Write the structure tokens for this entry.
Amino acid sequence: MIDKRESFLMSLRSAVIWKSFDRIVGLLKHIIIAAAIGLSVQLDIFYMAMALMGLFVFTWAQMLEVMAVPKLVELIGKEKISEFKSLSGGIFVLSLLFATILALILFFGREHLSKIALGFDPERKYLLAESIIWFFPVLILYIPFHFIGSVFRAMRRFSIFYQAEFIAGASALVLIITFKEHPRVLLWSFSVGFAGAFLYLFYFFCMKLKPWGNPFSKAVVNVLRVAPGLLMLQCAHYIYILTDRIFITFLASGSIGALAYGRTLAFMVEAVVNVKGSFVTIFSEAKDNHKKNETFNNLVSFVIYLSLPLTIFFLFFGEKIISILLKRGLFTSADTQLVYLALSGFSWSIMPMMMQMPMEQIYQIHGRIDLMVKRKFSGILINLILNYTFIFILKIGVLGIALATSISYWCVLAYGIIATKKIGLAFKLKRHFLWSLWVAASASIASLILYYIGALFESPFTIICQFVCFCLFIIAVGVLYCGEEGTLIKNVIKRMLSTCSS
């Protein structure tokens, strides 16, 4: 049942390969949509509907993932295979039943749900309510889909889930290309693609495990005991997104789409690498506190190495990237500038965003959900205050919304790092501070040089050469560092190369 288990590095490789394919497909989808409709009402409705589904549907899926993996890993470690099959089957049936009930509630309450978009006029509220109908298959399948994914991650079969996500994106892309003139294609293509991905994942689930079980067994109930705290924790992430989009409904049409595009570009690498997908398994398997400390601090170093250079690169070259990717058809220069404002604001939150989910998983494993709930909701309060200030007082629009999110994310990260002492983890502040200075200074110098060299050439596609040179420079920066991180980066590169060649 658990043959061909994947290591942490193999999981990262699988994530990079399949998530890269998924993000490329997603990028192509955005390019086609941008050219066809620009920053329009249709795009605003789509992303507002996604924000609503995030809070009322995606939250439950994330909660079930984080809640189930540690127990499933424990059962595998103790070789209790029959208990593993029984628990996974029971939770799957429960997730399917709950998702169906939730979908029906949202379907019949869709008109009331649309009123959350406070700044929308009646016509846009009607379109938002109508979008729930088109998303109905996703409402039913999303929660069980992600639970099956958590089962495969517990088994260290990460790539199957990543392949399913790619199928969802690729199917939607084909439908959008084929029916791009259809006024609702953004909505129903997502549902059809997701249904296909679910069937793919469910096939492997049936092949490997027992797909049906008792949803009210003692084992299932024991896993669900931490649900209230975890639900509040998972809600916080989607409350962030929904809060931003509620405030931005008071701005001009197209602003929600600009904010969503900026956020998508800023967090693309985080989604591709997907550290959180395999970290919870590796951290759960660590038996002693020394190993947990080592895993945690190596994660922080790895996130710094990925996020800080990316932040700096986006600030220097973000407008050119957006122009090349999206500026065609109905997507104008003004649209490009609006998306860049969002991207420049969100770029500052790449590091805390990448750290967010792994830290939540750490606290969940240690049974300290309360600390993370306090941390998250303090961030939401900060975000609300800053959103109001930046929109209605300082009037800096899309940039203000993105900056409010970034500032609040950094406050949440600082709170989380300080609280690690309460669960016995030692955050190596000096080590990470010196590493951050080295990476940030090196990335800034490289970006500045490449920016002025690129100005000598007229071709917009010089950004590709600039990006390749920047990546090679950052790899050298990591390898040449004299501290612990230099050894870490060398080992990671060696092991990834050996894994790829095997």
In short: Residues 289-326 form the longest helix (38 residues). The mean pLDDT is 83. Residues 434 and 483 are 9 Å apart (CA to CA). The chain has 21 helices and no strands.
